[in-house]
Amino acid sequence: MPATERHSADGKPLAGLRVAVTRAPEQSRELVARLTELGATVISLPGIAFEEPLDSKPLDAAIQQLATFDWLLFTSSNAARFFARRCRALGFEIASLVRGEKPVFVAAVGPATSEAAAAEGFVVGHMAEEFRSAELARELNDQLRERRVLLPRSDLALPELPDALRAAGAEVTEVIAYRNVPSSSVAPEALESVRRGDVDVIAFFSASAFHHLAERVGHAALGRATIAAVGPVTATAIREAGLKVEIEARQATSAAFVAVLTEYFAAHISKGVRTP
């Protein structure tokens, strides 16, 4: 039955839509539940998994010297989680680390990162209004000069943020808090469904997830589906690879993605055409 007919029969805005979610399962439970509630069939297609650094010594040293820093900046939920995990592995309590005699101010990019940091025990004093790392540096510009900034991030993080922080006069220490690795949990039938063009929408939440999946199935296969990008950095990476981003959530959150996906699908349904 065509997606438009299923939509009419079920009365759900995403009825009949086959959506491939490329986030790790542990990060996408809420998203999958919401998409399913709206009628979509969700295909789990994790492009990447996350692991601890191969060498944790630089991260350990930074944690042990955290009191010497003025700012601790998180640009992803994983950065906050892995940083906190390593703190506990070393026997440090988050509260004692950031609320000592010399408090360390914590900043984050976006509400998801802020919530993850708060859940780990950090008190986030500033959240970037826009969902870009460089925006965080711009907003904190006046507070960064001659300040020591600790930036725990992934092994694939781009230099945009540390460059902007240094340009603002900060002394930046970058440490790898976690690694992006190709996911080994992708079901072969899920990859085949993409290769056959049996997926309507593929949702990417990071540039690394896009690149890893493209290596597995090829750009041509990805191009058969409607590509959705969550966050401007992800969208830019996909476009630079020569593929079209039909759906873009400017805010890097699951809620923002569901909203733009629903809006996009509703527009096609109103025209009586199948999506994509």
Write up what this structure looks like.
This protein is elongated. The chain has helices spanning 3-10, 29-37, 57-64, 77-89, 94-98, 110-119, 133-139, 141-144, 160-167, 188-196, 207-217, 219-222, 232-240, 254-270; strands spanning 18-21, 41-44, 48-51, 71-74, 105-109, 124-128, 148-154, 171-182, 201-204, 226-230, 247-249. By secondary structure, it is of the alpha/beta class. Strand 5 (105-109), helix 6 (110-119) and strand 6 form a beta-alpha-beta unit. Strands 3-8-7-4-5-6 form a six-stranded mixed sheet. It folds into two domains: 3-47 and 183-270, Rossmann fold (3-Layer(aba) Sandwich), CATH 3.40.50; 52-181, Rossmann fold (3-Layer(aba) Sandwich). It has 14 helices and eleven strands.
Looking at this protein, list some descriptive labels.
single chain; about 280 residues; alpha/beta; Rossmann fold; 11 strands; elongated
Task: Provide a short characterization of the protein structure.
This protein is 44% helix and 21% strand.
Percent strand: 15-25%
Assign the CATH topology of the largest domain: Rossmann fold
Q: What about the largest sheet? A: 6 strands, mixed
What is the domain total for the residues?
A: 2
How are the SSEs placed, and which strands pair?
Elements (H helix, E strand, L loop, with lengths): L2 H8 L7 E4 L7 H9 L3 E4 L3 E4 L5 H8 L6 E4 L2 H13 L4 H5 L6 E5 H10 L4 E5 L4 H7 L1 H4 L3 E7 L5 H8 L3 E12 L5 H9 L4 E4 L2 H11 L1 H4 L3 E5 L1 H9 L6 E3 L4 H17 L6
Parallel strand pairs: 1-2, 1-9, 4-5, 4-7, 5-6, 7-8, 9-10, 10-11
Antiparallel strand pairs: 3-8
Helix pairs in contact: 4-6, 7-9, 11-13
